[in-house]
Design goal:
With 226 residues, this protein is of the alpha/beta class. The protein folds into two domains: 138 residues, Rossmann fold, CATH 3.40.50; 69 residues, Alpha-Beta Plaits, CATH 3.30.70. 28% of the residues lie in helices and 23% in strands. Strands 2-1-3-6-12-13 form a six-stranded mixed sheet, with helices on both faces. Helix 2 links the parallel strand 1 and strand 2. It is globular, with a radius of gyration of 17 Å. Bound molecules: ribose-5-phosphate. The site of ribose-5-phosphate (R5P) has 18 residues, from helix 2 and helix 4. It comes from Isobaculum melis. Keywords: Isomerase.
Length: 226
């Protein structure tokens, strides 16, 4: 059983006719986009708002009508993957370096669903490296600040061993923190650093989590939607 496919297809059932739908990024979200694409080909009428160039290409190929995030007032529902979800439903995202656009889309959404396999559910965040999107200018200064804190920073590299450049033209520094004691305090500190564009801590943002495991899908209602 492919758990990513299972939760991706389950989440696609939440999409209703007439909705504006935020389409997340990553290997799990790709299954959701594919399932929504099939429903669109069978007559479902929606508009998608994508969170990366990759997802935009996939959605276009499937014939899903798209608008940019700036062309819509509000997104009805966003479905996205996650890298880690803690016991109190906070998340780390950005393993695919899409967290800046993903957070902008999530913030413009009435409801957010995350789809994950059960390996992503953890007690505390931090085993997954925390992605920090930074502007290239001065990025070594930020690197040194993270190093001095003991966060073991590493620039995200491509297969060609070049610094990865995000869809927005920034770099990514991954922090290897092992365990994040206070995600809200860390997020506030990161938000205050000049040159940090966005970090991968997604706090108090998800409404529903669909978890896939060998025994099936579990739906967790994390917090009420707006
Ligand atoms: O930047 C990428 C996104 O935040 C993804 O949603 C996240 O990394 C999970 O990806 P995957 O489903 O491939 O594990």
């Amino acid at each position: 059983m492919n758990l990513k496919q299972m939760v991706g297809e389950k989440a696609a059932e939440y999409v209703k006719d007439g909705m504006i739908v935020g389409l997340g990024t990553g290997s799990t979200a790709a299954y959701m986009v594919e399932a929504i694409g099939k429903r669109v080909q069978n007559g479902l009428n929606i508009v998608g708002v994508t969170t990366s160039d990759r997802t935009a290409r996939q959605a276009e190929d499937l014939g899903i009508p798209l608008k940019s995030v700036d062309e819509v007032d509000m997104i009805d529902l966003t479905i996205d993957g996650a890298d880690e979800i803690s016991a109190d439903f906070q998340g780390i995202k950005g393993g695919g370096a899409a967290h800046l656009f993903e957070k902008i889309v999530a913030d413009a959404s009435k409801e957010v669903i995350w789809i994950v396999d059960d390996s992503k559910m953890v007690e505390k965040l931090g085993a997954f490296p925390l992605p920090i999107e930074v502007i290239p200018y001065g990025s070594m200064q930020l690197f040194r600040i993270f190093e001095a804190k003991g966060y073991q920073p590493a620039f995200r590299m491509t297969e060609k061993n070049e610094k990865l450049v995000t869809d927005a033209g920034h770099l990514v520094i991954d922090l290897h923190m092992k365990e994040i004691e206070d995600p809200h305090a860390l997020a506030a500190w990161l938000d205050g650093l000049t040159g940090v564009v966005e970090h991968g801590l997604f706090l108090d943002r998800v409404n529903t989590i669909i978890v896939g495991s060998a025994s099936g899908t579990q739906i967790i209602e994390a917090r009420p939607s707006i």
